[in-house]
Amino acid sequence: MLQFPSISFSPFSFWLGFLAGALFWWLFSSARKIVPDVNKWIKLQIEAINRRRNAGLEHQIRSQFLNWAQQQHLTANLCALDQIAIEPRFIFPTIDPETGGGGHFSSLTNQLLPVFLDCPEIYAQFNIDTLDPLVAICNGANLVITAQSGMGKTFALAWMTSRLISREEDTPGSARLPLSFHILDLNPEKFNLENPAANLVLALSNLLPSEKTQKLERFVNALLKENRVVLLLDGLDELAPEAHQKTTAWLSVLLQAYPQLQMITTGTPTYLGDLPGLGFQPVLLSSWSYAERNRYYSKWRDLWQENYATSGSATAVDDRLIMGWLFNDKRRFTPLEWCLMVWAAFDGLVLGESPTSYLEGLLDRVVPHNIPVRSLSYLSLELIQSQKLSLPYRSAAALLAKYRPSTAPAAEAFEEIESAPEQRSGLKRKKKISSRDQAMSDLLESGLLNEHAGEQVRFSNPLLMGYLASLLPESAAIIEQSTFDWPAHEIAVRFIIARDAAQGWVSKTIQSQKDILQTGIHKVSRAIPYSSLTSTWRSSFMRDLVSKLHDESIPSLLRLRLINCLLIANDPSLALLFKQLYASRSAFIRFSAVLAAGSLGLTTLINETRQLLNDEITEVQMAACLALGAMDTPQTQRLIESCLSSGTEEVQQVAAEILSKDSKDGHEILKVAATSENLLVRRAAVMGLCKIKEEWAQKILQKLSIEDGQWVVRSIAGHALEYTQHPERQAPMPFTKPENTEWLIQYASRQGMGVPVGQLAIDLMVDVLRRGKPEEKILALRALPQYPQNRVLEEIAQVFKKEQGPVQEAAYQALLQNYSIFQKTGMS
């Protein structure tokens, strides 16, 4: 029998050991849970220390970009950007991501007018919904700002940079940092595809030469990893096709390395290259209304009187005469052309009334007298023929010297200039500078040329480059180049057309059957404002436009889009033409004509437009109401009030939306209408109040949503209040993968299948275009531009040809984004 040693058992020791063990395991288990939080806390503290260490550098970068932004406009030598800025606005086709409908809360004005991503002028006078640029980027989507040259894309990027810095300067440690560059600042000839952030570091090092490159590299990498960068890239719309392709390849690598990085860049409506395939979404830069233009003129007048006017001069002109002439001009120009117009008016250098004369005046004003314009024309032509945006400094200087007459060889002509006195000796040194370098220095100082990384030199605006190139007789040869989609080439051709040197090419373009969106016609129409009224091609082109407007074999969407071609023509016979079209038997023609008259604010047609308020077609009545509101006279003001109180339901709502933009009388009328005993008037007032971004309007909407006696008013007031309180819902959203898209999952389930990944998911979306519901087709058309495959583009083109209404509009928008690729495929 085994014998065990005597064991003394102490209950106290047992329970003490038990409690100690339990406490140990509890502490151990708790520590395991706490350690990740501690590690996270330590990591946050390290990041905070690094941010405080880099706070000085970040503040320096913000200051540099703020100063840079204030210089990014045509008159930078006269004033800062904020002194004359008119806030840019974006037009974006809002679509409810769940239903495919027209957004969460869409006004009747927006429902009446299709969204054309290449025709901003048609919307300028109408109170359509537009996006604040800072709201447009709040959801993190990558955007490409599209507009014609001269519309202000560079200005929009500079304005966004300035506002991002000003809005977030109070919290530099956590706010996102805008990095704003022209694409040439990144040295695109040497894109680093292995380390794409290196090009950003290079651009920053050129901006801050006193900082060490290693320090900037650590700083930029930290910002990118923390997702604290908004990258704004200007100049992509100016790149020739080959350079554009290289740039998008670099952007693709950059986005793969930093998927959360948000980028905003520039493009033209038909020249986006591979950007849609990278997930960039186009937003159209809104054109100025006449009220915004007049506000710009008033800022100019105040600036000129304060800084540049010569009081008591015998040649001084009363500014009231100048402003009266400017305000009453109803021609439709770009902001750049309006800038040149007001500058010429106050400077006294008015050479004529056409945009071409304003460009001539600008060159007379800024080009140094020792440099002939002809030499600049040869430089411009060389850039366009070689399909380059810039040239090395030495090459540009040599080219200018080649065509610049001089008494001595350019390379041997020198001038002596005094350098700044030295601090110690106080002596002044003299150094020699060649006349070639002096000419380049003068051009850079004037703002006509800009210099970038790698000593690359370019013209400050492609409109100037195209105009200068077109002045040479030999420029007619560039029409045959196959780069018409490249904006610089297109602009040069525009001016060549304007001087009657391309009649055969114009006829060929108009008659083209392959251009299913008729983009060629719209590009030719951009030449009309620069042409003489007696040009041989102009009258026949205008007749052809009117003929196509009546051609019912052309989709109504494209026919309505032709109205924009007539608007920008600035032809003195337009008022008579539209008056004749008012009497057409076709409701579509009457609708189009009255919209055009409103877009130009033709007050001579007020009485005729008033009669269309009684048209048998509701859409024509609504368009007539819009047009009267755009004409903006005391008489039309009374007519709009009458429409609000006694018009049809749709016209009442349009009238209320018109009154919302009149901050003086219109707002008071809406306040009274919100208390009306008439149900329809109160309902219309809600549609107007939701467009007013002021606190008093929200209070009225809140009151109506709770206290109104009619459910229909309470309901729409509630939706309107939600719309005003959540503007981000109208902003673009980043694309999600097809397999994670709710509407596509629902479509696939109806087909008895799941959503595949990769190419099969794209094929499923193509199948939606054939068999889906209209709202599903719209959602598919919104997503498919990311996949510019031939089969996809061909299917979108078929939808555009066969469908009508919102589906056709969505197909047009999708096809336009990849139109340069679509045309290369040879499909029609």
Descriptive overview:
There is one protein chain. The protein is mainly α and 828 residues long. Among the domains are: 51-69 and 87-92 and 131-285, Rossmann fold, CATH 3.40.50; 738-824. The protein has 37 helices and 11 strands. It has a 6-stranded mixed β-sheet with strand order 1-6-2-5-4-3. A 3-stranded antiparallel β-sheet has the order 7-11-10. Strands 8-9 form a two-stranded antiparallel sheet. Strand 10 (449-452) and strand 11 (456-459) form a beta hairpin. Helix 11 (335-347) packs across helix 12 and helix 34 (774-783) packs parallel to helix 36. The longest helix is centred in the N-terminal third of the chain and has 59 residues, at 11-69. It is globular. 43% of the residues are buried. Residues 407-430 have low confidence and may be disordered. This is NACHT domain-containing protein.
Write the layout of secondary structure elements.
Blueprint: H1 11-69, H2 81-84, E1 90-91, H3 108-112, H4 133-136, E2 143-146, H5 153-168, E3 177-182, H6 197-207, H7 213-225, E4 229-234, H8 241-257, E5 262-267, E6 281-285, H9 290-307, H10 319-327, H11 335-347, H12 355-366, H13 373-385, E7 391-392, H14 393-402, E8 414-418, E9 430-434, H15 435-446, E10 449-452, E11 456-459, H16 462-470, H17 487-498, H18 503-510, H19 519-525, H20 536-550, H21 556-567, H22 574-582, H23 587-599, H24 606-611, H25 618-631, H26 634-646, H27 649-659, H28 665-673, H29 679-689, H30 695-707, H31 711-725, H32 742-750, H33 759-771, H34 774-783, H35 790-802, H36 805-817, H37 819-824
Parallel strand pairs: 2-5, 2-6, 3-4, 4-5
Antiparallel strand pairs: 1-6, 7-11, 8-9, 10-11
